[in-house]
Design a protein that fits this description.
The protein is α+β, with helices and mostly antiparallel strands. It is globular. The chain contains four helices and seven strands, in the order αββααββββαβ. It has one domain (10-149). The strands form two sheets. A five-stranded antiparallel sheet has the order 1-2-3-7-6. The protein has a two-stranded antiparallel sheet with strand order 4-5.
């Protein structure tokens, strides 16, 4: 399965990641006080990521179909955002805690959605392979919003 020509090519996968990523870097003089990179996991990008993983981890057909099915199932009920966050003071890098210093939400058509925040504990090389904007100094997070990605398109009511 790893070299299957039906899989989305890596170059296309990385192009999709770049298109769906927004970055913000804030300085106070010469000091970097915040470095954030957020990637919206659209349907197209999520399925391309399954192909990317199939190539890297050499999935067999069964593993590939299972991963693709799981991704499609998740896409039908939730929207995911990958967030790489660097803050020089580690005590403020606490997004996954219940008593965080931050307020995270997504405003969709006047409705606010707060995510379930998960700190990604995979090694740097794996995370960086999926999200090249993630740096060694950032903390990787998954933000899971309980609404479908299709709801983000203004022309389609949910």
């Amino acid at each position: 399965m790893g070299n299957d020509p039906k899989l989305v090519p890596d170059s296309q996968y990385y192009s999709l990641v770049e298109q769906r990523t927004s970055k913000q870097i804030i300085y106070d003089g010469l000091v970097n006080v915040l470095n954030a990179s957020a990637t919206l996991m659209s349907t197209e990008l999520t399925l391309a990521q399954v192909d990317h993983n199939a190539r890297i981890y050499q999935y067999n057909d069964s593993q590939y179909q299972t991963e693709k099915g799981t991704s499609k199932s998740n896409l039908s009920k939730q929207t995911e955002v990958f967030l790489s966050l660097f803050i020089p003071d580690r005590k403020f890098d606490d997004l996954a805690k219940k008593t965080t210093h931050w307020k995270i939400f997504l405003d969709v058509g006047g409705q606010r959605y707060e995510p379930k925040v998960l700190k990604i504990k995979t090694n740097f090389a794996e995370v960086n392979s999926l999200y090249p904007n993630h740096t060694r100094w950032g903390t990787p997070y998954r933000l899971i919003f309980l609404f479908r990605p299709q709801c983000l398109r203004p022309a389609k009511p949910c």
